[in-house]
Amino acid sequence: MRRVLLLALGLMAAQPVQAADTGGALRAFGLPGIWGENCRGGQETILVRFWAASDGLFRVTWGGPDVMQSAATIVAAEQTSAAEIVLTLGEGFAQPARRVSLRRDGDGLRVWRSVLLPDGVAMIAEGRSVASGEPVPALHRCMSE
Questions:
Q1: What is the structure's pLDDT at 29?
Q2: Using CA atoms, how far apart are residues 139 and 107, in angstroms rounded to an integer?
Q3: CA 85 – CA 28 distance, rounded (Å)
């Protein structure tokens, strides 16, 4: 009976601990908030927001100032160095699941690698679009959460 109770308590605690670990990693890296290549606005502006939802899960949304283009739940976050964090994003609005590596770039942040899950097709590698070879623009903090 005692083992069953301990197992049940362990299973109940598993999800909040993961959420807390994800949130802790995001906060330690300084990620929560709104980031953009150009924070001044305008129709061409793309803003990325990392935030904690009321259900305790962490989300990332991106799009223009007036229209959200995509959203995903951050399933896991692991800070691999002082300058890099790796996020696992679940399937989201208009996006497949993916693993994304973000790197600090001076005072900004750059998507360094983005790989679709589960097949591992790279969309971004070494900070460049695989399709075009163009560098991914650096994002700068627009507003803290």
A1: 94
A2: 9
A3: 10
Give the per-residue SS3 of the chain. CHHHHHHHHHHHHHHHHHHHHHHHHHHHHCCCEEEECCCCCCCCCCEEEEEECCCCCEEEEEECCCCEEEEEEEEEEEEEECCEEEEEECCEECECCEEEEEEEECCEEEEEEEEECCCCCEEEECCEECCCCCECCCEEEEEEC
122 - beta bridge partners?
Answer: 115
CA 125 – CA 93 distance, rounded (Å): 23
Structure tokens at 88: 């696992």
For residue 44, which of 52, 56, 36, 55 has the smallest C-alpha distance? 36
* Predicted confidence (pLDDT) per residue in 82-135, tens digit: 999 999 999 887 778 999 999 998 889 999 999 999 999 999 999 999 999 999
Mind listing the pLDDT tens digit for each residue in 40-60?
777 778 899 999 999 989 999
pTM for this entry: 0.80
Distances in whole angstroms, Cα of residue 49 to Cα of each of 2, 115, 117, 119? 44, 20, 22, 26
